[in-house]
Automatic annotation (TrEMBL):
Keywords: ATP-binding, GTP-binding, Kinase, Nucleotide-binding, Transferase. It comes from the Bacteria. Pfam families: PapZ_C, RapZ-like_N. This is Putative P-loop-containing kinase. One of its GO terms (molecular function) is ATP binding. Gene3D superfamilies: P-loop containing nucleotide triphosphate hydrolases. Signal peptide: none annotated. ATP binds at residues 13-20. GTP binds at residues 64-67.
């Protein structure tokens, strides 16, 4: 059983403080997540993860008052996990009474500890029950002034240290003649660059071939464009991450999607991969008209 290689995060805190958003942030970071697990099952769950032969190396579990009478055993379950030698961190989410009352009014939900009474009474009772857990928490986040995106970003920042940049980026080359991909976030049109299609020996090749890349990037205009475009990406992608974005699609298009867009997409993908982004590259239209025909 590989306990040392398993990271466990237990998410708890006040109802309405953002446990769901925190769990989703960790899920985006590659954690195996379980919502509302009764604390009595924590040790058994950790043992199953440790026996997964590396398939589950990091797990996040939300434990809260929805566990009913089982929730009171959470503190004991955390102690048992540590005694068994598991690497455990506790994330406690808090918020002001005023903020929690506003959130309950907006959602029109009843507080679990005061289903027939005032929301404030339930919040105060919950604070008393959770005080011991708050004291032993490794991380406390006050979400009173945070948007959902800001909370997710804070969770990612605190628990993704040492993992590299975890936003996934898809780079797609395409031909405008076949339509723009529907899911593109950032669109770049490179039809202003010299077209290898008009060089007979390059026409049957694609932007993945060295001869085509040499032709494109041997041009001073292409070199200047790449320098400025890569600098732009290097500037804006961290800001997307801070806003909680976990997946970005960059679309790079030329006429037919065979030469220029492919070469640029390859260069962009390698640039971002070198900066620890999770990268996938797809050349949607590169093989559609390689034998000639209309201009690429």
């Amino acid at each position: 059983m590989d306990k040392e290689g398993l990271e466990i995060i237990v998410i708890t805190g006040l109802s309405g403080a953002g446990r769901t958003q925190a769990m989703q942030s960790l899920e985006d970071q590659g954690f195996f997540c379980v919502d509302n697990l009764p604390p009595t099952f924590l040790v058994k769950f950790a043992e199953l993860c440790a026996q997964s032969r590396g398939k589950v190396s990091k797990a996040a579990i939300v434990c809260d008052l929805r566990g009913g009478e089982f929730f009171s055993s959470l503190s004991e379950a955390l102690t048992n996990l540590e005694t068994e030698g598991f690497h455990l961190r506790v994330l406690f989410l808090d918020a002001s009474d005023k903020t929690l009352i506003r959130r309950y009014k907006e959602s029109r939900r009843r507080h679990p500890l005061s289903p027939q009474g005032r929301v404030l009474d339930g919040i105060q009772a919950e604070r008393q029950q959770l005080e011991e857990l708050r004291i032993r928490a490794d991380e406390i986040i006050d979400t009173s002034d945070l948007t959902s995106q800001q909370l997710r970003a804070q969770v990612a920042e605190r628990f993704a240290k040492g993992r590299g940049t975890q936003m996934a980026v898809s780079v797609i080359s395409f031909g405008f003649k076949y339509g723009i991909p529907l899911d593109v976030d950032l669109l770049m049109d490179v039809r202003f660059l010299p077209n290898p299609f008009y060089v007979e020996k390059l026409r049957p090749l694609t932007g993945e071939d060295k001869q085509v890349q040499d032709y494109i990037f041997g041009n001073q205009m292409a070199q200047e464009f790449m320098e400025k475009y890569l600098a732009l990406l290097e500037y804006i992608l961290p800001n997307y991450i801070r806003e909680g974005k976990t997946h970005l699609v960059i679309g790079i298009g030329c006429t037919g999607g065979q030469h220029r867009s492919v070469a640029i997409a390859e260069r962009v993908g390698q640039f971002l991969r070198d900066r620890n982004y999770v990268i996938s590259i797809k050349h949607r239209d590169a093989a559609k008209n390689r034998k000639g025909g209309t201009a690429r």
